[in-house]
Design a protein that fits this description.
This protein has about 775 residues and is α/β, with parallel strands linked by helices. The chain has 26 helices and 24 strands.
Length: about 775
């Protein structure tokens, strides 16, 4: 859908680390690449950057000869990262000649010409100007970042004031250096000395420094904390070289109205301190309306509302003026430095006010690849890199309505832009009847591929019953790939629908074989095939042998919910209906908290980890172990735990005790107990768990015994009845559940339930300590 205007994203404060390689442009191309690779590797190797990436709290922007790292919540992030980088590279040979500039200021996210996320604004511009003053090994700070860093006792001794220097556009910056044991330099850089001024330039008429501009501050007199903030802003603006226009008398009269209007209309910027008390002020309302009128007439003044608790105030004339604007929030003295940094940044380089009219797209369904509302996640870059490498199998895993189809569409667009062939298969479009017969299913797939790619194939003579569905499908695909030298990207959406088909294991085994054929048949066509499989359900719950499927060889792209930064970005694309980070956090909480409250302890992961991955982490973190005694699941629970890398120190092993004899021989279950209660009973489940734990010495033992079907069962315990036991050093817990479905389905659900009972018992013991 077309737009009348592109949505402008909200501004936000960023703590920016800008660094580049000194002398980079003078090096040969090969050396440039070598130096950049070393710099990138060194930055990625720092603990601060690695943690911030994992938490989605940093944006890295390449700059050609270096990079900018934007930390959105961690004030000390740039300083820590710079120090870690300096210490890690100080003794490297040959030396890595870099310099660093740090600043806190406003930035605005943008999507650049290549479709990647970038930023603009005073925050990144000033950081670069600070860096430009430095020599090799200098870690330079702007006045704003130095003030913020100085609030931390551990950093304050490392900050040394160097003085003031003039940079681009005549801007004068107060510069400090960050230096200590193994990092930074305290001596002034050569460029700083050349650009340094002994003090601000003076005007001939008054001998006073020339003003950088006029800033009017609007407030309510005798209101607190309004006047305290006024005092803070007045001192900061004067120190920054701005002429501050204030009305300290505020007596309502004709002369006051004329003078106040002249003052406001002549200002370059207007800061309005808006509080619940000032929202009732007719004077402030009149002044804001005058500023708004002048802004519409001439584009000036820039209006900067400082909101100090007026978020929940009812609609008013004042709110009507400030609602569409980028607002600045203050909730207590701890926000002083941040507020000052944001306002000074906004005054130096104003950022465009967001558009009010934005045409939206229909609600629901996939987001088009070129949509301005599409928010890129880490999976997007990983998918693009995998396609560039022409990897064979790409698994797009995520919950319903989280963007799997949209990501797959982005992959298809990338392939088309490269001139590759693209085919799309959506299993959701197939009927249940079409997914019952393997040969009919494979023939349907081949026919749809043939139709999409305009490939003529003689099914009557080539598709022979003798060869069966899989060999016929493979021969068809081989000829399709041989038809062209261009790679083929085959997108399979809603793969979950096939999981319950009777031939699912055979079909996915066939897909796995095409991946293997890249190695076993190097001269074959399989290197030209990339398959993107999108699914929501855990594959291991339906695929009995993952080693005979594509789900443990392909690159897995796990789509997760939007984090707060991505929610704020999306908010900006929609015209910023949420006015602040606080409102975004409230919205996120309003969605997530009821789900947490409803599901409670049944939530085993919020980061995309599988249940077995969660359990293994719990065991490894606590140095605990587990062993298993399985009857109807026949080792499936043990297999799922063993599939997690690094679990060997937590998983001791397991018994498959399918018959009564094995229950007695391996797990020591009394035969009389089995005869009295039957093998499918709470008593036998308890004996299996307790005896197995005692025999192996594990912290936990899990038992599973039941009727998976289709035969067996009784009136008391019908087919689908499964008993579970979890033994710990303190107790043994048993549970009974009746599952509905065929044999594989009952086994899959039983393995899931057994794992979750184990997880709950691990957490219970941890809380009891």
């Amino acid at each position: 859908m077309t737009h009348e205007a592109d949505p402008v994203r909200p501004v936000q404060i960023a703590h920016v680390l800008f660094l580049d390689l000194v002398g980079y442009s003078q090096e040969k191309i090969r050396t440039q690449g070598y130096l950049l690779d070393r710099l990138n590797a060194a930055v990625r190797g720092t603990d601060t950057f690695s943690r911030a990436v994992a938490q989605g709290e940093v944006l890295a922007v390449p700059t050609g000869d270096g990079m900018a790292l934007l930390f959105f919540h961690d004030v000390t992030g740039p300083a820590r990262c710079a120090v870690e980088l300096a210490r890690a590279t100080r003794n490297q040979m040959p030396p890595l000649p870099f310099r660093v500039g740090m600043h806190s200021g406003l930035v605005q996210r943008q999507i650049d010409i290549s479709g990647k996320e970038n930023v603009v604004g005073e925050g990144i511009n000033t950081a670069q100007r600070v860096m430009d003053l430095g020599d090799v090994d200098h870690l330079l700070l702007s006045a704003q970042y130095a003030a913020l860093l100085g609030e931390f006792d551990e950093w304050s001794p490392c900050v040394t004031l160097l003085g003031e220097a003039e940079v681009k556009h005549g801007l004068r910056l107060t510069i400090s250096s960050l230096a200590g044991d193994g990092f930074g330099r305290c001596d002034p850089p050569a460029r700083f000395v050349a650009a340094r001024t002994d003090g601000p330039e003076r005007t001939a008429e008054t001998g006073a420094p020339p003003s950088r501009g006029k800033v009017a501050v609007l407030y309510k007199r005798d209101a607190q904390p309004d006047e305290n903030i006024l005092t803070l802003l007045e001192a900061t603006l004067h120190e920054g070289g701005y002429e501050v226009l204030l009305d300290r008398h505020r007596k309502l009269s004709i002369d006051w109205a004329r003078e106040s209007e002249e003052r406001i209309r002549s200002a370059d910027a207007v800061i309005a301190i808006v509080s619940p008390e000032s929202m009732q002020s007719e004077m402030l309302e009149w002044e804001l309306e005058a500023a708004n009128d002048q802004q519409h007439r001439t584009g000036k003044p820039l209006i900067l509302p400082v909101n100090i608790g007026a978020e929940g105030t009812a609609r008013s004339a004042i709110m009507a003026v400030i609602a569409p604007l980028n607002q600045f929030y203050w909730s207590g003295p701890r926000d002083d430095q941040r507020l000052v940094a944001e306002l000074m940044s906004a005054i130096r380089e104003p950022i465009k006010v967001r558009q009010r009219e934005i045409k939206l797209e229909p609600v629901g369904g996939a987001v088009p690849p070129d949509s301005p509302f599409y928010v890129e996640r880490s999976c997007d870059q990983e998918l693009a890199a995998a396609l560039d490498a022409r990897e064979s199998i790409l698994l797009i895993k995520g919950a319903r309505q989280i963007g799997k189809t949209s990501l797959q569409a982005r992959g298809a667009r990338i392939a088309r832009q490269k001139g590759w062939r693209v085919a799309l298969t959506d299993f959701q479009k197939l009927t249940a009847a079409q997914m019952q017969d393997e040969d009919a299913f494979c023939r349907l797939l081949a026919a749809t591929l043939s139709r999409q790619l305009k490939f003529s194939y003689d099914f009557a003579t080539e598709w022979l019953d003798l060869f069966g569905a899989n060999l016929n499908m493979e021969q068809f695909l081989r000829e399709l790939l041989d038809q062209s030298d261009e790679p083929l990207v085959w997108c399979i959406d809603e793969a979950d629908k096939l999981f319950s088909a009777p031939f699912a294991a055979d079909f996915f085994g066939l897909v796995r074989s095409w991946h293997n054929s890249r190695s076993t048949e190097p001269g074959g066509p399989w290197s030209k095939l990339s398959i993107l499989i999108a699914y929501a359900t855990e594959a291991h719950l339906f695929i009995q042998d993952l080693n005979q499927s594509p789900f443990n060889v392909g690159r897995r792209l796990d789509l997760e919910d939007f984090n707060l930064q991505q929610l704020v970005d999306l908010n900006g694309r929609y015209g910023s209906p949420l006015n602040s980070y606080a409102e975004a956090e409230q919205l996120l909480a309003a969605v997530v908290d009821p789900i947490r409250e409803l599901l409670g302890e049944r939530i085993y992961s919020e980061d995309g980890s599988s249940l077995e991955e969660t359990i293994c982490k719990l065991l490894l973190d606590r140095g605990e172990t587990v062993t298993l005694a399985e009857s109807c699941t026949a080792g499936l629970v043990c297999h799922r735990i063993a599939s997690v890398p690094g679990v060997s120190s937590a998983l001791m092993g397991g018994f498959v005790v399918y018959t009564d004899e094995m229950k007695a021989a391996l797990a020591g279950v009394d035969e009389q107990l089995i005869e009295k209660h039957t093998a499918v009973s709470a008593e036998v489940a308890e004996a299996l768990a307790v005896n197995t734990r005692q025999r192996t010495g594990a912290t936990y033992a899990v038992s599973v015994t039941g009727y998976a079907g289709p035969t067996g069962g009784s009136e008391e315990n019908p087919v689908g009845t499964v008993y579970f036991g979890v033994a710990t050093p303190e107790r043994c817990l048993t549970e009974r559940h009746v599952f509905v479905g065929d044999r594989p389905h009952v086994q899959r659900l039983s393995s899931q339930w057994a794992l979750d009972i184990l997880r709950m018992e691990i957490l219970r013991r941890a809380q009891a300590r």
